[in-house]
Design brief:
Layout: H1 2-7, H2 16-30, E1 33-40, E2 44-51, E3 54-62, H3 66-76, E4 88-92, E5 100-108, E6 111-119, H4 135-145, E7 150-155, H5 162-177, E8 183-187, E9 198-201, H6 210-217, E10 224-227, H7 233-244, E11 248-253, H8 258-267, H9 272-278, E12 279-291, E13 296-298, H10 301-304, E14 312-314, E15 326-336, H11 341-348, H12 353-362, H13 368-377, H14 383-390
Parallel strand pairs: 7-11, 7-12, 8-9, 8-10, 10-11
Antiparallel strand pairs: 1-2, 1-6, 2-3, 4-5, 5-6, 12-15, 13-14
């Protein structure tokens, strides 16, 4: 599809590189790709995109045009075209299509590799109800957004949809409070424009980082703050100082499970009493490929991969799913709310991930691995897909399904 589209373009035209980029990005949006990779090699520029979490090569561009492609992307993102020796990041401007995009460039042996993150169009994933969260979890999340102080952390690995969820929560918060509260963000970079919300972007080259920005924002009389990501101890400390002084803080954090996030924050130097007093909840999420309608049920034990289920659906492949057997993605999540006394004591005593996870589960939390088994039983995803995403051990360090 992409190669056929590019073959219609005239390489002799001066607009060829711009036309190639425009065509690829538009097709990526149509295919609901999350990332587009432009990777220079010795012989060609390899173009690939990630659909439903899987990277797929889609086209090649002559190697001699590799530098031109990187330069054109940097122009679109208002980056420095003459700096090819350092990584750069920026937002892509696209006045023609309804796309929010972020560009990252990185110097490699054969030139700059460029990766474009393609965000959902303005009409998709606007609200928590659009995310596909289980009803019980969604309701609890909405209740937490009504709180006036505390920290709500959205965690998971890269590419698990954390920012999308954070933005949906921010829109919901704004809808709930209207203009009665001051809602602000501090991001790196701004990934989507939110109407009616004051958004700011850090600028490390100028010394404007998360810590400085957040401390300054606290003097701007905010009610709710979105901090793009907790990356270091200073940012984590400032986030908890903000929530403990009467602010609602939403942020993202990389961790394999909700319990692991608590332990990692403790390892970063956050005092147990701050975690216990400041945490509203931790939402940990993963994206799984959802089976296409062509998938078939089977009770063959070899396809169950040791999961405690009687039968499963397995991917077959058809024209509608490009022979992958999957179409779209399914969001599964766990929400740890530390209001149970046993969980609270475990946080204060610095319990390890396994103990925290066990106590939270005993208090009613359904872990991602438990929800994944439910999704397998319902025929929404396959055991092999769950293995691909979660591996043979869940985020708490325990084996799953066996």
């Amino acid at each position: 599809m992409v190669a056929a589209r590019l073959s219609l373009l005239d390489v002799a035209q001066p607009t060829y590189v711009g036309d190639v980029i425009s065509a690829i990005l538009q097709l990526a949006c149509d295919a609901r790709a999350s990332d587009v990779h432009f990777t220079p090699t010795e012989s060609a520029l390899i173009v690939a995109w990630r659909v439903d979490g899987v990277l797929q090569p889609i086209a090649t561009v002559p190697q001699r045009l590799s530098a031109n492609v990187a330069a054109r992307l940097k122009v679109l993102a208002d980056l420095l075209t003459y700096r090819t020796d350092v990584p750069q990041e920026g937002r892509l401007r696209d006045d023609t299509h309804d796309m929010e995009m972020r560009l990252s460039t990185f110097p490699t042996l054969y030139g700059e590799k460029s990766v474009v993150r393609v965000f959902a169009g303005s009409g998709r994933f606007q609200w928590p109800s659009d995310l596909g969260l289980p009803a019980d979890l969604q309701q609890r999340l909405l209740e937490l957004l009504l709180e006036t102080a505390g920290t709500l952390i959205i965690t998971g690995p890269a590419g698990s949809g954390k920012t999308t969820t954070a933005y949906a929560c921010l829109r919901e918060l704004q809808r709930q409070v209207g203009s009665g509260k001051s809602v602000v963000t501090l991001e790196d970079p701004i990934e989507s424009v939110l109407g009616g919300i004051s958004q700011s972007q850090v600028n490390r080259a100028a010394g404007f980082d998360y810590v400085l920005g957040l401390r300054s924002l606290l003097r701007q009389d905010p009610d709710a703050i979105l901090v793009g990501e907790i990356r270091d101890r200073e940012t984590a400390e400032t986030v908890f100082q903000a929530c403990l002084t009467g602010h609602l803080v939403l942020t993202t954090f990389h961790a394999g499970s909700a319990a692991e996030a608590i332990c990692r924050l403790g390892d970063m130097g956050i005092e147990p009493y701050q975690l216990r007093a400041g945490l509203l909840g931790i939402l940990c999420q993963r994206l799984f490929r959802e089976l296409c309608d062509c998938a078939q049920w089977t009770d063959d034990e070899v396809h169950r991969l040791g999961y405690p289920v009687q039968r499963v659906r397995i991917p077959i492949g058809c024209a509608g799913c490009n022979s992958t057997g999957y179409r779209g993605r399914l969001l599964l999540a766990e929400l740890l709310v530390p209001n149970d006394p046993a969980v609270g004591r475990a946080i204060v005593t610095r319990a390890d991930t396994s103990e925290l996870n066990a106590l939270a589960t005993a208090a009613g939390m359904l872990s991602i691995s438990q929800r994944a088994i439910q999704a397998i039983e319902a025929g929404r995803t396959s055991p092999s897909e769950v293995r691909r995403v979660l591996g043979f051990r869940d985020g708490s360090g325990h084996g799953i399904g066996v």
